[in-house]
Amino acid sequence: MPTTGRQVQLAARPDGLPRPEHFTVARVPVPDPGPGQALVRNLFFQVFPSVRTLINGGVQGAPFPELQPGDTLPGAAVGEVLSASEGSDLRPGDLVSHWQGWREYAVVDAAACTALGDALPDPAAHLGQGHTAYTALTAADTRPGDTVLVTGAAGAVGSMAGQIARLLGAARVIGSTGSRTKAERLVNELGYDAVVLRDELIDEQLAKAAPDGIDVLVDNVGGEQLRAAVRAARTGARFALVGTLSSQLSPSSSGTTGPVELDTFQLILKQITLRGVTGAATTREEWAERFGEWLRAGRLTFPHVRVAGIDNAPQALHELISGRHLGAVIVEV
Fold first, then answer.
1. What does residue 36 show for φ and ψ, rounded to 5 degrees?
2. Taking residues 241-267, what's their average pLDDT?
3. 84-109 pLDDT per residue, tens
4. Which residues, 6 or more positions from 2, have their beta carbon under 8 angstroms from its beta carbon?
5. What residues contact 229, with CB distance under 8 A and at least 6 apart?
6. How far is residue 128's CA from residue 273's CA, in Å, rounded to a whole number?
7. Residue 199 — very low, low, confident or very high, per pLDDT cuts 50/70/90?
8. Which of the pair, 299 or 56, is modelled with greater confidence?
């Protein structure tokens, strides 16, 4: 059994966006699991932009607390059980998911682990954000024939949301991104009908991409893109609010708030509904079964980038925040 393992820790709070030098990869003793706990060797963990929010103080009511210098970063992980205490349903060799990523070895409460089985052809796919995308589209009551707009379409949620919207019957799917290269990939590889660029005239682009307006919004960004979606909405449009990337990835913002000014007259006159998405439309087990069926049938793909080695995790976060990658960013421990 291992006696030490590496972990990614916050070394210092950044003034602005975090960079690799604000983190350290430390080797620490691996504690013995106590009653009701399991020792898990992590195989993969997800790199996600909300780390910046945790570094800068967190958000009241969010599931993760504020990070202090010296703390190990949290995050979704997939690993193999090495040992488990008596009375646990876990057994050595079981594949599980949990929230103690950014480390080689994790001692986790058995109740906080989800046994994964073989529902998905690739264990790393359990770290995809298709479940969040599906939940958002369900919350927005996506219907056959709808025109759907997904902001932040090249991210972990957005790269799945466009594909799932199509499977739910959307007639037209539009995305937004900041890169022409990503825009081309979203159309050519992920089935988007059109993509608008965030740094250009969004209203004019949306008028061309959706001349009759949009019925559904999956919003991962907030800010000006959310305001533009209100202007482009049809009567009765349904908005699912998932993220605030415009704030989280802004050097001038703390990343802990997502302020945006909306035209209330338009919300009222167009009868737009806005719903924050934090829950789940299905259980993880039900989603994994559906996701696995779609993957094996070739009806959707899991866009992601794999980064080899925990030592490269801080650089992977920097690249994610810089907008280098399309899809989920996963570290292969």
1. 75, 15
2. 93
3. 988 788 999 999 999 999 999 999 99
4. 30, 41, 82, 104, 105
5. 149, 151, 206, 214, 217, 219, 239
6. 27
7. confident
8. 299
Q: Which residues pair with 214 in a beta bridge?
A: 233
Portions of the chain given CATH number 3.90.180.10: 4-127+302-332
Residue whose pair of structure tokens reads 């090249």 in the numeric block: 154
Residues of the chain with CATH 3.40.50.720: 130-276
Take residue 10 and report the two structure tokens written for it: 């916050």
In one letter, which amino acid is 43? L
Give the residue carrying structure tokens 């988007």: 192
DSSP state of 30: P
Instruction: Write down the residue that tokens 């264990």 correspond to.
Output: 123
Quote the DSSP letter at residue 312: G
DSSP output for 260-318? ----HHHHHHTT-EEEE--S-SS-HHHHHHHHHHHHHTTS----EEEEESGGGHHHHHH
Q: List, in sequence order, every beta strand (DSSP E) within the chain.
A: 4-10, 23-29, 37-47, 77-84, 95-98, 105-109, 114-115, 147-150, 172-177, 194-197, 214-219, 233-241, 273-276, 304-308, 328-332
CA distances from 241 to 12, 52, 122, 152, 229 (A): 31, 19, 29, 12, 12
Across-strand partners of 6? 27
pLDDT band per the 50, 70, 90 thresholds, residue 316? very high
Model pLDDT, residue 87: 76
Class at the top of the CATH hierarchy for domain 4-127+302-332: alpha beta
Q: Which residues pair with 114 in a beta bridge?
A: 97
d(CA 40, CA 3): 13
Output the pTM of the full model. Answer: 0.95
The residue whose two tokens read 């990835």 is: 249
Look at residues 238, 222, 249, 233 and name the one whose alpha carbon lies nearest to residue 324.
249
218 in Cβ contact with 158 (< 8 Å):
yes
Reading the block at residue 274, the tokens are 């806005």
CATH classification for the domain delimited by 130-276, as one of 3.40.50.720, 3.40.50.10260, 1.10.10.10, 3.10.200.10: 3.40.50.720
